[in-house]
DNA sequence: ATTATCTATAGATCTATAGATAATGC
DNA sequence: ATTATCTATAGATCTATAGATAATGC
């Protein structure tokens, strides 16, 4: 009886019935998306195989292709889903700190956005992957750029985003000490002071 | 006659004879190292295949394994060779700017160190790769940490290195505009001012 | 004779697909 | 009957190795 490993039961919170673990295309889609989101963040695009993802979702690997067409398309949906919410729900002047704290927090609850972590671990993948990553980066940088009134505000925004991603890179991906174990408050304070000077730097003219 | 594609002739600057393109184990080793250094920097560890590397070196692919044992071992030699020189030849207080300018410069001559670029593009590879990358990062961070006299100087050094790598990530790997096309002097000035505040920040006590 | 180089191929992955099986809705 | 799910496998890579070939040094 090879169906000993049925998908986890607690999922599929859409239908309303509680113990659902039967044929449910929508639910299976969501299970795959959640599993992919987790594994892409943990291992990056290339190292998270479709079999890993399907296995974590408790779902047959062929269904991933039935519902998403390809691994890249699945990645695209994961990236499109995440990030956007945090980006729109956060006022610009708080975006940097919120994103930084999200990166500094350990494996926080399922509510936290791991899109930036996915970006960091998927660098160097195929060009299409790079495109998907650039999209999210652009949105963040655009918001950060509005914080500076200098005429090179866009460049300053890029530099702020660069620091954010660099910190995530060293802390989360590389695990560099002492940064990896540093107190989030201390990191925020040090970075915040330096960045305030950068973003609120006096415009050249005025 | 399948030997139409002999290795490039201008190489092997060791023996002294100019037109050398015959059997030369040392020369072949060097050709492979150079080709690997270039391709790892351009595509990262995973995407640069052993066949690509051997092909660029104008050398049969089996020789890579004969002289280095494995692709990972070759990567280790590339990482060990690069970086160290720049790291030791540069006085600590100039290291950040030199490394930053090296990253901001386009495909500079063969003299420039591309180790940091290799790091950035190889993130997310296997764990052994991560180890090799961490080694280089540690050395840079150690030097940068000496610039700050604050009692959390090591953390400040990590944050400086994070920014350096983040800028390289956005500019070189992702190609984020306007950063990617920005004037190196402008970038250095903006980052330098903000970092001076961070690294020379007053110690908490004294 | 030694050994640098090349040919051919084993062996391990991984994505993706074709077609069989079986659970649901009418 | 419809369609969600599963089995089996094609097909494409990629690293690595065993053994053949051929250019050098004595």
Give a written overview of the molecule.
The structure is a homodimer of 206-residue chains. Chain A is mostly helical and 206 residues long. The first copy, chain A, contains ten helices and no strands. In chain A, helix 2 (50-57) crosses helix 3, helix 7 crosses helix 9 (153-174) and helix 8 (127-145) packs across helix 9. At the A-B interface, helix 1, helix 7, helix 8, helix 9 and helix 10 of A face helix 1, helix 7, helix 8, helix 9 and helix 10 of B. Chain A binds a DNA duplex (26 and 26 nucleotides) through residues 2-3, 22-25, 28, 49-51, 59-66, 70-71.
Key structural traits:
homodimer; 206 residues; mainly alpha; Tetracycline Repressor, domain 2; 10 helices; 0% strand; elongated; disordered N terminus; disordered C terminus; DNA-binding
Biggest interface found: A-B, 49 and 50 residues
| Rg over C-alpha atoms of chain A, rounded to the nearest angstrom | 20 Å
Terminal CA distance of chain A: 77 Å
Strand content of chain A: under 5%
- Name of the CATH architecture of one domain in chain A: Orthogonal Bundle
Helix content of chain A: 55-70%
Sheet with the most strands, sense and barrel status of chain A: none
Highest-level CATH class of one domain in chain A: Mainly Alpha
What best-fitting shape of chain A do the alpha-carbon axes yield?
Answer: elongated
Mean pLDDT of chain A: 84
- The CATH topology of one domain in chain A: Tetracycline Repressor, domain 2
> Which stretches of chain A are low in confidence, meaning pLDDT under 50 for 5 or more residues running?
1-20, 202-206
Given helix and strand content, the structural type of chain A is mainly alpha
Secondary structure tally, helices of chain A: 10
- Give the topology string of chain A: H per helix, E per strand: HHHHHHHHHH
């Amino acid at each position: 009886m090879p169906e000993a490993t049925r998908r986890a039961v607690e999922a599929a919170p859409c239908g309303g019935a509680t113990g659902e673990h039967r044929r449910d295309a929508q639910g299976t889609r969501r299970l795959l998306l959640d599993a992919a989101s987790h594994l892409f963040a943990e291992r990056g695009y290339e190292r998270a195989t479709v079999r890993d993802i399907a296995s974590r979702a408790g779902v047959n690997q062929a269904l991933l292709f039935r519902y998403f067409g390809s691994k890249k398309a699945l990645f695209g949906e994961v990236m499109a889903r995440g990030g956007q919410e945090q980006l729109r729900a956060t006022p610009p002047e708080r975006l940097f700190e919120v994103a930084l704290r999200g990166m500094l927090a350990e494996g926080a609850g399922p509510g936290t956005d791991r899109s930036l972590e996915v970006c960091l671990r998927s660098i160097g993948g195929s060009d299409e992957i790079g495109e998907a990553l650039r999209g999210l980066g652009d949105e963040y940088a655009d918001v950060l750029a509005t914080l500076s009134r200098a005429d090179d505000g866009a460049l300053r925004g890029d530099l702020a985003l660069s620091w954010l991603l660099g910190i995530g890179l060293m802390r989360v991906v590389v695990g560099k000490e002492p940064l990896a174990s540093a107190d989030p408050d201390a990191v925020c304070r040090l970075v915040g002071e330096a960045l305030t000077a950068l973003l609120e730097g006096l415009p050249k003219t005025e």
